[in-house]
Design goal:
Blueprint lengths: L10 H9 L7 H11 L4 E4 L6 H13 L11 E4 L3 H14 L7 E4 L5 H10 L3 E4 L1 H9 L10 E4 L2 H6 L3 H10 L5 E6 L4 H10 L4 E4 L10 E7 L8 H16 L6 E4 L3 H13 L4 E4 L5 H12 L5 E4 L14 E4 L6 H8 L9 E7 L4 H11 L5 E2 L15 H4 L10 H10 L2 H4 L8 H8 L21 H6 L3
Parallel strand pairs: 1-6, 1-7, 2-4, 2-5, 3-4, 5-6, 8-13, 8-14, 9-11, 9-12, 10-11, 12-13
Helix pairs in contact: 2-3, 3-4, 13-14
């Protein structure tokens, strides 16, 4: 069996790997590191959670061990689709460069430009960035990419989903033609294949699993939710989520719950907290410091349930996540693979449960076609419960009672106060206005334009002028 010590890595890197507790590389690491150390372009295709980050950080650190960074001219560049994933890559560099003097800068949104510019001005060996923030610095004239020797594109298929491909192509054009390119993706969509054919030169292709397959260590289930009355559907679906969580019992140490919309992330988080679940939301609209704080709390076990949008699907690296709950069926089949890949990591077993409505049938079928198997169905635990019994908001419980729910004496008082005229059907020949006026007689009710026709409106123009109106 291959060990890290067999991969010609720098001795200081090997020491850091050993201190981190690793000895044997994963298949993608064993396949990608040797050609990367030889200076070849690499195309790595592997599902999430297989150790792709170390596949490029370890050879990069070894190759960058010699040389010196110059101001505003980074020696290497790593592009990531989300802030969280970029931060994860930065953490990997910190772990494996602890015995070396390499410098890095992290360029992501939500952080002051001045702080980032100060790092760039000093010169960095490794620049880790999201495409948008990188181009912002370039257009400000604060950054040159002509010194990039190694360029990494991580989670390329996610870049495609998020619309970053034009930015990626532009960034490629700003780097030297002689650069070494390491390109990683979980899937190979036609657009991704076009880019690799354009910008990679004779790459070593390492594919360690079928494209877009889920780990066999993840047990998958889907619960079919038939929906409810329109005004109760969301409430009932959140009740179903709680039932599914409770059904897993003590096996849930922590879990990520994915929603398709940011607004639903907040609603589900508030709902779970209200019912006593230790939950917190994370999505793109939150301040970066708050997102970092929430992720740190989740990693440290201070938060048990992390409710997330897809912004966290690729950037969350917590090896011990036991469960993933898909509150919504993702609209892109590939996102399902990346979502459930948050569990079953580092050789552990995981569990993924999804809620599917009839309107999701097409997306569910696409997911099953992609992973090439049918997801086992779970029985709906709410199937036998009437809708009226599934309550959630305090307002629904404190809603004022109807006359049928009030004491009989109170209802009887209401009847005695009714006008005799209003309790009988209107006589034939009465106009609506006559009926309303009669029924409201003596009650001090102001009759509006909809119930009464003022006499002056029926007068002709000449009659009104003669009357002085």
């Amino acid at each position: 069996m291959t060990k890290f010590s067999d991969l010609s890595l720098d001795p200081k890197v090997l020491k850091a790997i050993e201190e981190a507790g690793y000895e044997t590389p994963t298949p993608i690491q064993a396949g990608a590191i040797p050609p990367a150390l030889e200076g070849r372009d690499v195309l790595g295709i592997a599902q999430t959670g297989t150790g792709k980050t170390a596949s490029f950080t370890l050879p990069m650190i070894t190759l960058l061990a010699k040389g010196r960074a110059r101001a505003r001219m980074p020696r290497s560049l790593v592009l990531a689709p989300t802030r969280e994933l970029a931060a994860q890559v930065a953490e990997n560099f910190d772990t494996y460069t602890k015995h070396m003097k390499l410098t890095k800068a992290l360029l992501i949104g939500g952080v002051s430009f001045k702080e980032q510019e100060a790092l760039i001005d000093k010169g960095v060996d490794v620049l880790i960035a999201t495409p948008g923030r990188l181009l912002d610095h370039f257009e400000r004239g604060k950054l040159l990419l002509t010194g990039v020797q190694i360029m990494v594109v991580d989670e390329a298929d996610r870049m495609l989903d998020m619309g970053f491909i034009p930015d990626i192509e532009r960034i490629f054009s700003l780097t030297p033609f002689t650069r070494q390119t390491l390109f990683f993706s979980a899937t190979m969509a036609p657009e991704i294949e076009r880019i690799t054919n354009t910008f990679l030169s004779g790459p070593a292709k390492i594919e360690v699993a079928r494209q877009a397959t889920a780990s066999e260590r993840i047990a998958q289930n889907v619960c079919i939710f038939e929906g409810a009355k329109r005004d109760r559907s969301g409430t009932r679906k959140r009740a179903l989520l709680r039932k599914l969580i409770d059904a897993e019992g003590d096996t849930v140490s922590n879990a990520v719950i994915f929603c398709n919309r940011k607004s639903d992330v907040d609603i589900v988080a508030k709902s779970l907290k209200k019912y006593g679940y230790d939950a917190a939301p994370i999505h793109g609209d939150l301040d970066q410091s708050q997102r970092n704080r929430t992720l740190d709390d989740f990693r440290e076990g201070k938060i048990k349930f992390l409710i997330a949008s897809d912004v966290a699907a690729r950037g969350l690296d917590v090896p011990s996540v036991t469960h993933v709950f898909n509150f919504d069926v993702p609209t892109h089949a590939e996102d399902y693979v990346h979502r459930i890949g948050r569990t079953g990591r580092a050789g552990r077993d995981g569990k993924a449960v999804m809620i599917s409505e009839p309107r999701d049938d097409k997306n569910l079928a696409a997911i099953e076609a992609l992973i090439q198997k049918q997801i086992p169905r779970l029985e709906n635990p709410l199937a036998d419960e009437p809708e009226e019994e599934v309550k959630e908001t305090r307002s629904s419980r404190s809603r004022s009672r109807s006359s049928d729910d009030r004491p009989k004496a109170e209802a009887s008082d209401d009847k005695s106060k009714r006008s005799p005229r209003s309790s009988r059907s209107r006589k034939r020949g009465d106009s609506p206005a006559d009926h309303v006026a009669e029924s409201n007689k003596g009650r001090g009710v102001i009759v509006g334009m909809g119930d009464h026709l003022p006499s002056f409106i029926a007068m002709s123009f000449d009659e009104r002028r003669a009357a002085g109106l």
